[in-house]
Write a structure and sequence with these properties.
5-stranded parallel β-sheet; binds thymidine-5'-phosphate; 8 helices; alpha/beta; globular
Length: 220
């Protein structure tokens, strides 16, 4: 299945820099869907499967000398398995998938911020997932300096990078939002939790409606 193939599901991904508020917003989006009679599959990268969660630990808390190529390959390896065993089957069953990060994260973090090459990382990941792209991508846009203030706990391996790293990530997301304007929804994540959630619901509403009508489930 590639992005040009059809599946009866709705594949929603959430993207953004570190500490942009993704987890909170995904949980609220799930609640909104459940109130409409839809039980979405919530999943994340890196992670989402037993193997993926183990790899997540190794990538995020791995050795300081992990080189960018190894890091990029580990992200794409967990992704290939995650998509093959969990996400693609759910989409083929017609489910709504809410996914915390996908290949755009690799393009922004490894391709741009780590300077491995945006095209190379995109091709590697498209190969890993056999071309499957999201139906819609919610990009939570937040100034890295503001995000930094929101950070709690000990920084992990990627959070220890200088702030310029997060600025490069953000710039690449802007590029992606232009290249994939049809699937990208840019959300101003600087407001309070409720106002950000309202923007997300407005952005998703037409797609969710269409999905519910096509599948005749929920309160469509
Ligand atoms: P999270 O904190 O949003 O769960 O993401 C974990 C970290 O991994 C975060 O710093 C972003 C980074 N990351 C990449 O660098 N490349 C990827 O492909 C993914 C999925 C995450």
């Amino acid at each position: 299945m590639s992005s040009t193939d059809t599946h009866p599901g709705l594949f929603v991904t959430f993207e953004g820099g570190d500490s942009c508020g993704k987890s909170t917003q995904i949980a609220l989006t799930k609640q909104w869907l459940e109130d409409r009679g839809v039980a979405p599959l919530l999943t994340r990268e890196p992670g989402g499967t037993e193997l993926g969660e183990k790899l997540r630990e190794l990538i995020i808390h791995g050795p300081d000398d992990m080189d960018p190529h190894t890091e990029a390959l580990l992200y794409s390896a967990q992704r290939a398995y995650h998509m093959e065993t969990k996400v693609r089957p759910a989409l083929l069953r017609g489910e709504v998938v809410l996914q915390d990060r996908y290949l755009d994260s690799s393009v922004a973090y490894q391709g741009a911020a780590r300077a491995l090459g945006v095209d190379e990382i995109l091709q590697l990941n498209l190969w890993a997932v056999r071309g499957l792209l999201p139906d819609v991508t919610i990009f939570l846009d937040l100034d890295p300096e503001v995000a930094f203030e929101r950070r709690t706990g000990e920084p992990d391996r990627l959070e220890r990078e200088p702030n310029s790293f997060q600025h490069r990530v953000r710039e690449q997301y802007y590029e992606l939002s232009k290249t994939y304007a049809d699937r990208y929804r840019v959300i101003d994540a600087s407001g309070d939790i409720e106002s950000v959630q309202q923007q997300i619901r407005r952005a998703l509403e037409p797609l969710v409606e269409k999905h519910l009508r096509a599948n005749k489930v929920g309160n469509a």
